[in-house]
Amino acid sequence: FRTTTVTVSNPTQEQFENLPFTTYCPCSRIAISYDQFTSINVRFHQVCSSDFISDRWIQTIFTGSNTTYFYLKDFRTYGSAAFQALASFCHLSKTSALQSVTLFNQMSIISPEILTQSVFQSQIDASIKQFQLTTPNEFKIQLNLVQEMTTHSKLQSALQTNYRLSYYSLNTWQLSILRGVLGYFPSNGNSCYCTGDFNCKVPSKIYDIYREATQLIRNNNSKILMLINGFKSSCLPVSAILLSTLECFYNQTCVNQLISFFPTNEKFLAMSFSEQSRFAINSTVQMIVDELMIEKWITNISYDKYFKQCAPNLCTCTKNEKYTFTFILTKIISLLGEFTLVLGFIIRLIVRLIRRLPRTEPITLCQRIKYLFRKIWTKLNMFKHHESNEHEERYQRLGTRLYIFILIITLSILSVYILIEEGVHRITILKPTENQYKHFQKIYSNKSICPCSSMTMTYANFITIQPYYHQVCSSDLVSSQWIQYNAKTTTGLAYAILDYRLNSQPQFQLLAMFCQQAQQIVDNGIKIFLQTQFVSSQIDSQDLFESKINLSISDWQLLMLNRYLRPINIIRTITQGNLLMNSGLNNKFSTTNSTYRNIKILTTNYSNCLCALSSQCMQFMGMYTLNSYTSRFIPIFEFRNFYIGCSSVESLLKSTLEFFYNRSAMFEIDQYLYAPLGSSFNFSALNPALSLPNETIETIVNRLMID
C-alpha cells in the first residue's frame, strides 16, 4: 500500500460532504457567533397578549380610595394590584427572554476545524437546550429572593392585606395605633400568618360587605356574591396572583359576572380554550412564571450558514492505495536499467586492469594490492587531456592528489559532524496511555505533539464540583421545626420591640432563605458550567491544563457570587433609599388628638441612631418582661451579637451565631418562650470545630454560604 495526500482548495459544502470522515478542514474563522447560523424566537402565554394585562382592565377593576372598605378577602380589595403584578411579570418575562437570547447570540462556537452536519447539529441542539433550561431558572431564583426578602423584612402593603393598623384609646386625649399581623385560615382548619409565610391563601370571593372599618369584619349573615374560580387571596397581591389559576378568565360567563361588580360598561374578551398550550388551564400563575411565561421556543439552525462562516480555505486527507501493476513494472525496469549501467562501467574497469597485468611469475595478493595502490598514486590523473604533454600530466597528477586529499578531509569532517550531531527521529505511538504521554513529556518536553481525537469536550468529562456549605445551612436553625418553634412565641402576647420572641422567626427564615438561594444558584451554575465546551487541538501538559482549568473555575466562582449578591444588595439599597415602612422596626405612629386623630410617623431610635438616617441602627436582641406597675419592659436576658434594628436583613447580616454554638444557652431560653419544650427540647447546637462562632453572617453570605 502507499499513502497519498489529497488537497482540495476552497471546497464547497457538497465537496466537503463527499470527502472521507478523517478529512481535516481548518476554518478561516475559529470563533463564530451563534447569531450567524441560529435564530431563536419566543411565543409567550396568551395571557401576555390578552385584555387582562391592559391598562383598561387594571383601571376598570381599580376601586381607588374605597379599596380598604371591602372585606379583606374580597377580589375588589387587591384585584387591580394583582393584575398589575401579572402585567409586570409579562413585561419582565419578555425583557428577560429577549436579553437572554441576545446574550446567547453573542456567544461563539469555537470551531478550529469544520464540523460535520451531524456533529454540528447535536452540539448546537445541546447548547440551545441548556440555554432554554437555565434562562427561566435564573428568573425564578431572583423572583423567589425578592418575595422572601419582602416578607421577612416585614414590609407592609398599603392595602393592609398582610398587616392591619387599628386605633385604641389610651385615655381621653391620647390614642395609640396598633399594627397587627393578619392571618389566612383555609377551610381545612390550618392557620397561616403573614409574618412568616407569603404563601398563605384562601379562595377569592365577592362579598356584600362595604363600609368603613369593615376590612376584617364578616359575620354569618355576610353574603357571598361570587366565588372566583381558581383565584386566591393572600398576604400580598403578588403572592395572590402567583398562587391563583386563570380558570375564570378562560370563561366568558365568569369574566362577565366578575366585571358586573364594577361600575363600568367596558367589555373584556376571555382567553381562548382552543389555543394550543403546554400549560393546563388549571396551572397556577407561579407555574407559568417559573417557565418565564414562555409557551414555545422557536429555533432554527442553519448548517449552510455555519459552513459559509467557517469558510475552509483547503481540506486535506490521506488515502491508502495498493500499488498498481503498471507502477511496479515501471519501477523494476527503471532499476534494471540503472543496475546495467553501473555494472557495465565496473566490468570495463576490471577487464582493463586485468589486461594490464604483466604475464610474469605469480605474485602474492598483498604484493598486488601494494602495486595497485602505488600505481594509482603515481599514475592516477583525474584531469588528463588527450593533448597534454608530460610536464602538464605531472601537474594534473599533483592536482588529482590535492583533490583527493581535500575530499578525504571534507568527508572526515562530515563524518565527525554526523557522529556528534543528534539525529531527528519521529516516534509514533497510537492511542498512548496517560503514563506514556507523561513519560515522553518528561523526556522530550515540548517536542512531543499529541493531537486530540476530539477538539472539544465538556468540562463534565474531567471535572467534578462539590460545594461544602457552612454548617448552618444543614443545621436545626434553618429547619421548619425550629422556625415554627420560635413562631409560637408571638401569639396573643405583648413584647418589647427588641424581644427575641417577637423577632427571631423572620430572622431564621431569612437565614434559611440565604442558604436556599445560595444552593439553588450554585446547583444551577454547576450544571451550566459542566456543559461548557473545553477546546484543545492537542493535549496540554498537566501544569498548563491545570492552570487553564483553575482560571476558568475562578471566573465561574466569581460569576456565581455576583449573581447571588447583586439582587440582595439591590433590594437592601432600594428598601433603605425609599424609606419603606416595615412592621414597626423602623417607624412608629403617634397620635395626640382624639378628635382629628392626627397621625405622626416617627422614626425609630436604636442606641441614639435614627433609622431615617441609616439602616445600620441596631441593638442586641433580648428577653423582656412587662412591669405591670410602670408599663415598661425590663430586660431579663441578652443575646450578645444577635441583633435587631431598623431592617431585619441588615440586623441579621451584622449578627453572629455564637449564641447558638452553646446548647446549654439554647436550652436556657426555652423556659421563656410561649410554648417551652422542656425535656422534649432536642435541637442541636452548631459545632465550633467546624466554623468560627464569632463570624458575622454577612461574611458567610459574601462567600456564597460556602466554606
From TrEMBL:
This is Uncharacterized protein. Keywords: Membrane, Transmembrane, Transmembrane helix. It comes from Adineta steineri. The chain crosses the membrane at residues 323-351, 402-420.
